[in-house]
Amino acid sequence: MFELSAFDISLLLACALFAGLVDSIMGGGGMIQVPALFAVLPGFPPATLLSVNKFGSIVGTIGSAIQYSRANKSPRGLVMISSAFAFFASVAGAYLVTQLPTQWLRGALPFLLIGLLIVNIKSSAGLIHEPKHQHHKQKAIASTGAGIIGFYDGFLGPGAGAFYKLLYTRFLGFDFLRAAAPAKCLNIASNLGALCVFFYLGYFDWKLGILLASANLIGGQIGTKIAIKHGNAFIRKGFFILVTVLIIKTFYDAFLK
């Protein structure tokens, strides 16, 4: 790892802790952590910074998933099969991103997010736990959605955690608290898939990864306790704020940057 000042290390730790906190409540921690990494470490290969972000996110998300699972039991079969789809789709997306341009997807993303935000504001999705489908149909929808989002996570990535939560609340009828652990598991799977590709290509820094992972874990534990304490309405508001920020950021990245 490059030589870092005490200020640089403190800044990275603070951003990683806050990213873990935000990610555990509503997803989207990468919007905080990735810009911080690129700002503090401009000399690092971008792929290395992205892989370190994935590693830190995985560790923090595992901690959050355990806490959410203790509060509300998750359907293991559903989570396992959809996580497998997310993992392999993310591997494909991470590989493909090295072969194809992503600008077309960047341009479409803010408009997709606007549509999803409008649909969710007009519904009560996430406030009440009312699963919509029987087991086989539920697994088919979860696996298809996880595959699509997992591919996107490996290919581009911003807001994938929020998309997983949306899959469970909007399309499967879970409330936000019961959707939290499954969404976290899917996010772990797709992050791990992309990380495997980065590992294979030799892009990683263990010292930096462990540094960020420790702060992510602490932030995730704090955020999960806040979310469990304040419940679905609180998470729903946070989710809408996150999607709004994602719309602004993705629009800026696609058309103004």
UniProtKB/TrEMBL annotation:
<protein>
    <recommendedName>
        <fullName>Probable membrane transporter protein</fullName>
    </recommendedName>
</protein>
<dbReference type="InterPro" id="IPR002781">
    <property type="entry name" value="TM_pro_TauE-like"/>
</dbReference>
<feature type="transmembrane region" description="Helical">
    <location>
        <begin position="176"/>
        <end position="201"/>
    </location>
</feature>
<comment type="similarity">
    <text>Belongs to the 4-toluene sulfonate uptake permease (TSUP) (TC 2.A.102) family.</text>
</comment>
<feature type="transmembrane region" description="Helical">
    <location>
        <begin position="234"/>
        <end position="252"/>
    </location>
</feature>
<feature type="transmembrane region" description="Helical">
    <location>
        <begin position="78"/>
        <end position="97"/>
    </location>
</feature>
<feature type="transmembrane region" description="Helical">
    <location>
        <begin position="49"/>
        <end position="66"/>
    </location>
</feature>
<dbReference type="Pfam" id="PF01925">
    <property type="entry name" value="TauE"/>
</dbReference>
<keyword id="KW-0472">Membrane</keyword>
<keyword id="KW-0812">Transmembrane</keyword>
<feature type="transmembrane region" description="Helical">
    <location>
        <begin position="109"/>
        <end position="128"/>
    </location>
</feature>
<dbReference type="InterPro" id="IPR052017">
    <property type="entry name" value="TSUP"/>
</dbReference>
<keyword id="KW-1133">Transmembrane helix</keyword>
<keyword id="KW-0813">Transport</keyword>
<dbReference type="GO" id="GO:0005886">
    <property type="term" value="C:plasma membrane"/>
</dbReference>
<feature type="transmembrane region" description="Helical">
    <location>
        <begin position="140"/>
        <end position="164"/>
    </location>
</feature>
<keyword id="KW-1003">Cell membrane</keyword>
